Amino acid sequence: MSDISVSTPGAVPEVFQVLERWRPGQILTVLLVVGAYVLGLFVDDYWFNAILIPFLIMALAGLGLNLLTGFTGQASLGTGAFMSVGAFATFNVLLRAPALPLPLSLIIGGLFAAAAGVLFGLPSLRIKGFYLTASTLAAQFFLPWLFNQYGWFSNYTTSGSISAPRLEFVGHDLSTPFGRYLLTLTSVVALTWVSWNLVTSQVGRNWMAIRDMDTAAAVAGIPIAFNKLAAFAISSFVVGVAGALWAFAYLGTVDSRSFDLNRSFTVLFIIIIGGMGSIAGAFVGSAFVILLPILISRVSATFFAGAIDAGQLQNFQKILFGGLIVFFLIREPNGLIALFSKFRRRLSQWPLKA
Amino acid sequence: MNLFLETLVGGLLAGVMYSLVAIGFVLIYKASGVFNFAQGSMVLFAALTFVTLREAEYGFVAALLITLLVMVVGAIAIERFVLRSLVNQSDLTLFMATLGLSFVIEGLAQLLMGASVHELNLGIDDLPIALGSIQVSQFDLVAAATAGALVISLSLFFNFTRIGISLRAIADDPLAAQSIGIRLPVLWRIVWGVAGLVALVAGLLWGARQGVQFSLTLVVLKALPVLIIGGFTSIGGAIVGGLLIGATESLAEIYISDLLGGSVSTWFAYVVALVFLLARPAGLFGERAIERV
Predict the structure, then answer these.
(1) CA separation (Å) from A231 to A161, A205, A227, A346, B257?
(2) Which end of chain A is more exposed for a tag (fewer CB within 10 A), N or C?
(3) Test the B interface: residue of A128, A132, A145 with most B CBs within 10 Å
(4) pLDDT confidence of A307, banded at 50, 70, 90?
(5) 3-state secondary structure labels for all residues of B167-230
(6) In chain B, where are the structural domains located?
C-alpha cells in the first residue's frame, strides 16, 4: 500500500480495491467466520454438542456482558437472569405465535431481555461500583424465581423444565447438531458484527467515556442516564439471545436452574480472563472457560483413572480451575487478549527486543 | 400480635447471623478494598476443619485454637500468593481473584475433609424460652450474644489499638499510609486472619444450625443485601443491616409469601436492599464518595 507510483483509478477491479482497503484484522475475521462455517462440515456430533455450540453461545453472552461491563463500566452479576428472560420469552413466543419465523422469535426474546435489563439497570443511575454489582443480584434471584413460581411461563409443565419446540427456518429443520450449529454461528456472527459497529461508533465512545469517568463524561455533555440504560438494554438483548440459544440450541430444554448465579459468574470469568472491553476477548475467554474443564477432566481421567475416586477428582479439578484463574489474573490482568497483542508487537519488531 | 412479635424477634436474631458473615466482608473491604467473595468458602473451611478435629477426639478449646491457626496460616498464604501480586489492579480483577480463590478453598476443604454432612454440637440446646408472652430460641440468643461480643471487641480493637488505627489510615488513603511507614502486607495478613476468625465464629454458629456442609458457602449470598443496606465499610452498619434484613425477611415470609403463592426468601432481601439503595446510594453508614474530575 505504500507505493508511491500513482495508481490510475479503474485499473484495478473494484472488488480488489475493497480488499486493498481492508486491514489484516478484518481479513483475519472474515477468514475465521468462513472457516467456522466450513469447520461445521467436518466435525462430528460430539464436537458440536460439547465444544462448538457451548463455546459460541457463552462467547455471545460474554460479548453481551462486555458491552455493559467492559465498555460502559457497569459490572453486573445478573447475566444468568437476563439469559433466562431471553430463553423463557423466546419459548413463549415460539409456543404462542408459532407462525413467526425463528429469527424474529429470537429477536423478540432478546427484546424482552432488554426490557428486563433496563428495569434492573435503573439503580445504575443512582449507585455505582460494588453496590451496583450486588444489586444486580436482585435480578439474578428474582427472575428465575418468577419463572419457576408461575406456571404460565413454562406452559404449566409439571417437571419445571420444558422440552424446546422444533427449530425450523423457511422449511429447513434446524434440530440436527449441524443445524443448531448453523443457527448459533449465524446469530453469533450477526450480533458480533452489530456490537463491533456499536462500540466503534459514537455510542461506543460515549460508553467508554462513562466507563473511564462518568463525572467527566457528564461535564463533557454526554447524557449519562440514557447511555447507561442503553448499555443495559443492548447488553441484555445480546445476553438474552445467548440465553435463548443456550436453551434451544444447546440444552434442548428451558430450565431456570441452568441460569443460576454460577452462570453469571462464568460469563464474568469469560470477559475478565479474555479481556475487558474487547470483542475478541469474549471469544478467547469463552474458549478458555469452556475448554479448560473439558481438558482438565480428559487429562486427569487419562492419568488418574481408577487411582482416585470421581468425587476427589472433581475437587481436584475445582482447585486447579480456581488456581488457574488466579494465576492468569496475576500474569495478565488485562486478559488473554493482551497476551496476544503483546505477542504480535514482539513479532512485528523481531528480531529487535521490545 | 404474638405471631408478629415472635416472627420479628426470630427474624432479628436470624439477622444477627447474617451480620456475622457480613462483618468478615467489611473487615477486608475496609483494609484492602477487596470485595472478598471467598468469605463464604472460609466459613465452610473453618467449620469443616473444626468439625474434623472434634471428630478426631480433640478437645473443644484445642480444636478451636488449631482451626484458628489454620485460618491464620491460610490468611498469610493468601496475602503472599494472591494479594501481593495483584496490588493496584482494578476492583473487579481483585473480586474475580477472590472468586477463583473460593474455588480453591472449597475444593481443598472437600478434598482434605470430605463432602459429607457433619453434625456440629456446641452444647447449646435449641430450646424455646418464654420471654414475656413470646417464645425465643435459646440458640438464637446465644448466637446474638456471641455476635454482639464479637462486634464490641472488634470495635475496641479497631478504635484503640495501634493496628486498628493503622488499618483506618490504610482505608482512608493507602498511599499516604504507606509513605508514613505503615506496612501494608503485614496489615493485610492481620486483617485476613481476623476475617478468618470471624469466619470461624460464623461457621460454628451456622454449622450448628444447619449442619456443616457445602451449603454453608451460600451464606455469602445472605450477607450481600446486608452489606448493601449497611454500607461496605461499616461494622455497625453490618449489624443494623443484618437486623433489618432478618426482620423484613421473616415478616415477608409470613405475610407476603401467601399473597405470591410461594417462598420469597431467596430474593426478598435483595429487593429490600435495592429499594433502600434508591433512597441512600451509599447504604446506611457507608461513606459517601466525593467525586472530582
Answers:
(1) 31, 12, 6, 35, 34
(2) N
(3) A145
(4) low
(5) HHHHHHCHHHHHHCCCCHHHHHHHHHHHHHHHHHHHHHHHHHHHCECHHHHHHHHHHHHHHHHH
(6) 16-214
- Contact state of A318 with B85 under an 8 Å Cβ cutoff: no
Amino acid at B157: F
Over residues B36-51, the pLDDT tens digits come to 888 889 999 999 999 9
Containing domain of residue A244, as a range? 43-349
Domain membership flag for residue A62? yes
Residues from chain B that touch A285, judged by Cβ atoms under 8 A, are none
**Phi, psi (degrees; rounded to nearest 5) at B280:** -130, 95
Q: What is the number of domains present in chain A?
A: 1
How large is the average pLDDT for residues A205-211? Answer: 94
CATH code for position A274: 1.10.3470
Instruction: Test A131 with B282 for CB contact under 8 angstroms.
Output: yes
Q: Is B278 on the interface with A (CB under 8 A)?
A: yes
Nearest Cα to A140, choosing from A245, A254, A265?
A265
A151 touches chain B (CB under 8 A): no
Q: A181 lies in a domain? A: yes
With an 8 Å Cβ cutoff, are A123 and B278 in contact? Answer: yes
Q: Convert the pLDDT of each residue in B179-223 to its tens digit.
A: 998 888 888 888 889 999 999 998 888 888 888 888 888 888 888
Contact B293 A215 (CB under 8 A): yes
Question: Does some domain include residue A27?
Answer: no
